[in-house]
């Protein structure tokens, strides 16, 4: 059995390090040197394709790769472009990841009279995401022209090519440097797992499901804590109510101490000092919070 599953990730950019770390946390050992375009999974049947992020949805659409890690902004833009072309989209956006956060927002030149979406009627907007922006205008019944710019979108207004822009922002510093004011956001984006909709062999399906399950496990673990404490037996309900994202706790009797038990619980959200203080308030003592390394639900 020498079938291999191909995972496409960004070759060099904002998503690269995070994507590699995520796959490594899933237990994948990748052998890869900097200038190679393919990384080899040493201990599992996965090969990693290092490509431009914009090419990732297309590789899955063509079933050349089975999985991809890419910004939802890129995936949704491609999905809309296939739909506009009357072809079906052959991938599904699966788990949102915990990196690549950004937003797709309008920005208006300081010198312009455009101050909000309402002023965009009849205007020209430059963007690298023409399908997403057109879709937004259609949904909001705004008649505006969308012109595609593949890079340096911020320059479009000063070049006289557009009245406003719609681009990815995280801090807004680039906008300010180009005398643009941040406007409304039309999409919040985060890196996402894309999975091919194509029919796969049983072997590939098994490994695709396994890696997606491990990715979900890694995401849960990032926030999760294992909490141990002593508590009055009758306070268990109050305790579980105080801890966000917990399932049924393990309750262990304490030798020779009547009415007090040890409570162990996995908490899937961030545990703050305030929560520990509240636990103490309802009678808990000897509270220990430890990080969780792996989790399989
Ligand atoms: P290439 O096309 O060569 O792979 P790129 O220039 O398109 O690279 P990056 O700038 O690395 O790519 O951005 C990749 C992704 O990172 C974006 O599509 C987006 O999902 C996410 N991202 C997060 N923050 C930002 C930001 N401030 N600006 C742009 N993209 C961001
Ligand atoms: Zn790109």
Give a written overview of the molecule.
With 297 residues, this protein is of the alpha+beta class. It folds into three domains: 5-99 and 191-221, 3-Layer(aba) Sandwich (D-Maltodextrin-Binding Protein, domain 2); 102-189, 3-Layer(aba) Sandwich (D-Maltodextrin-Binding Protein, domain 2), CATH 3.40.190.10; 225-291, 2-Layer Sandwich (Alpha-Beta Plaits). It is 28% helix and 32% strand. It has eight helices and 16 strands. A hairpin with a 6-residue loop joins strand 2 (30-31) and strand 3 (38-41). The longest helix is centred in the last third of the chain and has 22 residues, at 202-223. The protein starts with a strand and ends in a 6-residue tail after the last strand. The model has no long low-confidence stretch (mean pLDDT 94). Bound molecules: adenosine-5'-triphosphate and zinc ion. Zinc ion is lined by residues 52-54.
How are the SSEs ordered, and which strands pair?
Elements: E1 5-10, H1 16-25, E2 30-31, E3 38-41, E4 46-51, H2 56-61, E5 67-71, H3 72-84, E6 91-96, E7 102-109, E8 124-127, H4 130-139, E9 145-148, E10 164-169, H5 173-177, E11 180-189, E12 191-196, H6 202-223, E13 225-232, H7 236-242, E14 250-253, E15 260-267, H8 273-281, E16 285-291
Parallel strand pairs: 1-4, 1-5, 8-9, 8-10
Antiparallel strand pairs: 2-3, 3-4, 5-12, 6-12, 7-10, 7-11, 13-15, 13-16, 14-15
Helix pairs in contact: 3-4
Residues 52-54 line the site of zinc ion.
């Amino acid at each position: 059995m020498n079938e291999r599953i191909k995972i496409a990730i960004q070759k060099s950019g904002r998503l690269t390090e995070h994507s590699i770390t995520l796959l490594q946390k899933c237990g994948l050992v990748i052998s890869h040197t900097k200038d190679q375009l393919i990384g080899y999974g040493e201990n599992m049947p996965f090969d990693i394709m290092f490509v431009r992020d914009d090419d990732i949805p297309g590789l899955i659409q063509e079933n050349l790769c089975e999985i991809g890690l890419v910004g939802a902004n890129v995936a949704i833009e491609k999905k809309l472009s296939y739909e506009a072309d009357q072809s079906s989209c052959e991938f599904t956006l699966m788990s949102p990841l915990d990196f690549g956060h950004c937003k797709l927002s309008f920005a208006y030149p300081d010198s312009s009279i455009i101050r909000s979406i309402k002023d965009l009627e009849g205007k020209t907007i430059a963007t690298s995401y023409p399908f997403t922006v057109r879709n937004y205008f259609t949904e909001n019944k705004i008649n505006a022209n969308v012109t595609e710019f593949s890079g340096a979108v911020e320059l479009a207004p000063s070049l006289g090519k557009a009245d406003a822009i719609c681009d990815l922002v995280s801090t807004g510093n680039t906008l300010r440097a180009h005398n643009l004011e941040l406007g409304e956001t039309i999409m919040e984006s985060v890196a996402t797992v894309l999975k091919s909709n194509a029919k796969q062999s049983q072997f590939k399906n098994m490994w695709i499901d396994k890696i997606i399950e491990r990715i979900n496990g890694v995401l849960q673990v990032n926030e999760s804590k294992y909490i141990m404490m002593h508590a009055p037996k009758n306070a268990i309900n109050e305790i579980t109510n105080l801890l966000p994202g917990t399932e049924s706790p393990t309750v262990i009797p304490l030798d020779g101490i009547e009415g007090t038990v040890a409570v162990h619980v996995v908490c899937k959200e961030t545990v703050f000092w305030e929560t520990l203080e509240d636990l103490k308030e309802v009678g808990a003592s000897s509270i220990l919070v430890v990080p969780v390394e792996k989790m399989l639900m």
